[in-house]
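Honest question from a wet-lab person: if I give you the sequences of every part of a complex, can you actually get the arrangement of the whole thing, not just the pieces? Trying it with mine:
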Amino acid sequence: MEMSPQQPFITTKLDEFTKWAQTSAIWPMTMGLACCAIEMMSIVSPRYDTSRFGAEVFRSSPRQSDLMIVSGRVANKMAPILRQLYDQMPDPKWVISMGACASSGGIFDNYAVLPGVDSILPVDVYVPGCPPSPDALIYALMQLRREIAAGGKANVLARG
Amino acid sequence: MSATDLSIFENERDLTAQPGDERDTLVLSMGPQHPSTHGVLRVMLRLDGETVVTADPEIGFLHTGIEKQAENLFWQQAVTVVDRADYLAPLSNSLCYVLAAEKLLGIQNIPPRAQVLRVMFAELTRIASHLVQLGTHAMDLGAQSIFMYAFEMRERILEIMEFVTGARMHQSWFRIGGLAIDVPKGFLDKMDDFIGRFPERLSDIRAILEKNIIIMDRLIGVGKMTAHEAVEWGMTGPILRASGVAYDVRKAFPYSGYETYDFDICTRTSGDSYARFVVRLDEMYEAWRIIKQAREKFPDGPVTIDDRKILPPPKTEIQHSMEALIHHFKLVSSGFNVPEGHIYQAVESPRGELGMYVTSAGGNKPWRVRWRPPSFYNLQALRKLAPGNLVADVVAIIGSLDPVFGEVDR
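Yes, you can. This is the full assembly:
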């Protein structure tokens, strides 16, 4: 990005501008699954306050969100719905797998729980913990911003 | 029926039907991803205009197999999975399980310090849970700022939890035979700070909400339940008490020394959503009173029973004594056996009577851990409460029933 000293405009590449826009306004979807959802709610509370990073606008509709935070264990009954919600989100979109259960099934090694949400969704960032603290989730958000800035799936323009 | 099966919507609206006709209804699927269902609940609403005709909750979207999983863990290990059922009040779950296991083992000499700490933390959990309910319920009704207040207050409690147990949410701190570790230095200062500040913060929230015209409009008279109905439908906890029945497990069947504390059962008689909301506010104050009394009587002494067959010896002893090492090895590798028998143990969780029917076949793992999750029983009242109200009221009613799906679906 370059700022002209005399002229009141900024010159930049469209690609960089898009990335800047995408990193600074990540809108997560309001989708709480289990325990981690409570910690996910905590990140908008005054102490953690993700509005500092432009990510506090939790949208209830998948059509309006960029980021799906899979917050908790995914039961087999929930898995097709999760996939459907992901498919309803517009491109470009990202997925954070929050907590041990979403990432690998966690302590629930049984008939009912999906052993890792990455078997149905392309996950960008995994957050360890049971549940991860809100700080950990914010760190994951920062990692995601780095990923978007570095290319990642943000190159949807180039992809067509 | 699979989740994506849309055949249920077919033939639902008959275009030849006249207004007021029974056929002139619309089926609306609310959830399982909906901000106001407080988790993964799906409600099939049949609507006549904007009025709800029938409401059928569909559950099971968070079925985790916790009961089955507990059967495959040693008695002591199962504390970790029972914690994760009702994730807003993990310590209530583990308290119930631990008390049941202790009864089966015949342990009666839990040290007073452990008893007091159990009560103290169960009540802290109650406050934290009610705060989440309050914040999210108020947010459903449009009051965003209460969520901020409530979560900030909850953070103070989680801070204490993390300080003492090392975990913010799933503490797994209660163990069969006592507590996992004693409280660290500086705990009492933190508690004093919390006890000193809490009533003022609570009255702040009360001042904003209790006489708020919007809250009153949205909640008064919505989802009414008489005392008779509440008992018939198997309601417990704040929902039962809001209908005027003064039933509290802590008073009716005291455990962990609750009989030595002075507190009131908070009741209201109107039985509507507003009564439930006020009962929860009152309960937070009563929980604070119990915590204050627990702080005053806070005794010295050990936090575990002195039984090497149940709990491992202290680390310092393991390094010097062969016998202690053997005890430790046995407990870690094969746990302990619990005499054959079965028992029902109930505790008052923030949502009501949380019961566990634990069966032991004499082995080192529970044979069956059957739950009586209060949310599951309370949620069924939606079928009765929602019809006749508007769609927007369904949100208010679900919020006031305060279901936690980890517990409903297990």
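Two things worth pointing out. The domain at 66-106+110-304+339-385+392-409 of chain B is CATH 1.10.645.10 (Cytochrome-c3 Hydrogenase; chain B). The mean pLDDT of chain B is 87.
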